[in-house]
Amino acid sequence: MPKALVVSDEVDERLWTGAVRAVAVDLVIGAGDLPYDYLAFLASALDAPCVFVPGNHDPDLSGYTRYGGLSMKDGFPTVWPGPAGGVNADGRVVDVAGLRFAGLGGSVRYNDGPNQWTQRQQARRARGLVRRARLKRWRDGRDVDVLLTHSPPLDLGDRPDPPHRGFACLHRTIEVLRPKWLLHGHIHPHGEPVPDRVVGATRIRNVVGHRIMEFS
């Protein structure tokens, strides 16, 4: 039963110290809009792998390839701006610490910043993600455990203002992949309690700030 430190959007200064080593977890999960140095510190201090998706305030990580310890972009070696040792799940299906993640980062497009997508663009990316998940399931029989996103599904925990609208395509993605969890950030509760939402067999949780979660 893997246990994870799940973080998103808001840095907790208490975790950005050596005191975090008292937290016993198997992995760190990031749902976006956090300094990559923060994610790298958590993973290093906890001696745990880190899987994440970028948020709309994070640097653009598209176009980078990584082979071993070498990062490449446009055919040239370069410094990867992501968290050291972190696994970027955006648009991918990855297995980390015994869990299978399918990831879709970013938010609805509202200006010219990075990691923003129109509804149609994100729907196209979601269809590609579903194809990858189905192929992996055909190969090894394993389903997706966690759909890791930055933004929530449309009308399920999002907000009416344009930057914080959810993605409509996530409804279909949930329906097809049937993950146990959808974890997202982006929507700041501002101290208000945010109950989980349930769609079919999937529990949707806003993880802004930090949470300790166990996955069965």
Structure characterization notes:
This is Metallophosphoesterase. Residues 23-189 form the Calcineurin-like phosphoesterase domain. It comes from Amycolatopsis nalaikhensis. Pfam families: Metallophos. The chain has three helices and 16 strands. By secondary structure, the protein is of the alpha/beta class. Helix 2 (119-140) runs parallel beside helix 3 (169-177).
Quick tags:
single chain, five-stranded mixed sheet, six-stranded mixed sheet, alpha/beta, 19% helix, 16 strands, 3 helices, globular, 28% strand
Which helices and strands appear, and what pairs or packs with what?
Elements: E1 3-8, E2 27-30, H1 36-46, E3 50-52, E4 64-67, E5 70-73, E6 76-77, E7 87-88, E8 93-96, E9 99-104, E10 107-108, E11 116-117, H2 119-140, E12 146-149, H3 169-177, E13 181-184, E14 197-199, E15 202-206, E16 209-214
Parallel strand pairs: 1-2, 2-3, 3-7, 9-12, 10-11, 12-13, 13-15
Antiparallel strand pairs: 1-16, 4-5, 5-6, 8-9, 14-15
Helix pairs in contact: 2-3
Question: What is the first-to-last residue Cα distance?
Answer: 5 Å
Q: How many DSSP-defined strands?
A: 16
Radius of gyration: 16 Å
What is the oligomeric state here? single chain
Give the strand order, joined by hyphens, for the main sheet. Answer: 8-9-12-13-15-14
Beta fraction of the residues? 25-35%
Number of alpha- plus pi-helical segments:
3
Classify the secondary structure makeup into a structural class.
Answer: alpha/beta
Silhouette: globular
Helix and strand pattern:
EEHEEEEEEEEEHEHEEEE
How much helical structure, as a percent, in the residues? 10-25%
Q: Determine the mean pLDDT.
A: 94
Main β-sheet description = 6 strands, mixed
Low-confidence stretches: none
